[in-house]
Amino acid sequence: MKRYVKYIWILFLLLLSCSNKEEPVARVDGTVLTKDELAQVAGYSSEILSSGYVKDVVNSWIDQELLYREAMKRKLEKREDIRREIENYRRYILTEHLIQEVVLDGIEIDEDSLLEYYNRNSSLYTAQSDMVRLVLLNVEDADTARSVYERITSGVPIERFEPFLYLSDSTGNFFARDELPKEVAKVAFSMEDGELSEPIETDFGYFIVKRISSVSQGTILPFEAVRDDIHYILYSRRSSDRINSFIDSLRREHSIWINPLYEETTDAVEDSI
Hints:
Strand content: 5-15%
Strand order of the largest sheet: 4-3-6-5
Distance between the termini: 40 Å
């Protein structure tokens, strides 16, 4: 599912990126996909990818462009239900940008706050089984997997391959054995810390594993292993407070009326129980 969502997102970006005059990779009538745009969407030069993978992405872009043109030809954008969907999505995008760029701008969670939360709640982060900290790369085809592996072993930093990261960032996440494909778990739990695996074939594509460290069942996970989780908790709390405060201020600035039949009151809630 994760690979599918990432693939659709790549196609969406490709559709948005086809307006400049650089070297073309493909063309549908007057709309062009350039080599530079392809590299930008992929996150690195397309030479890293196998020719088969690049061809699939390009052909998918062509398919999407053809479908879009056919939808416009049939004037689907003029249908009232579709126009409502587009308008609802436009409103959603605008309000999300308002929240992210105005309301939540400047929120920072300092390291002391993260550590304080961890120290007060460290018992919540006890390993329920043996775990390994891994950086996982997931690649769909064997040629690209081999190319990525060889580039890492030749000195290219693993963070350069961020588009292939699977359920981890470039510093690694902790995994229990049953959270990994069985082929990956077998290799990961037998590796030494710091070791990089060759591509591992699974039903979900090819995995390249870098083992960072490990912990035993019953051990409290180190701070760096749960730092992102704690950051999410604290950031969510502050974000919620900011948003509620901002909306309260807007309510004071505007005239708001609710039909009494739809206005929730304590009595109405109690009567409905």
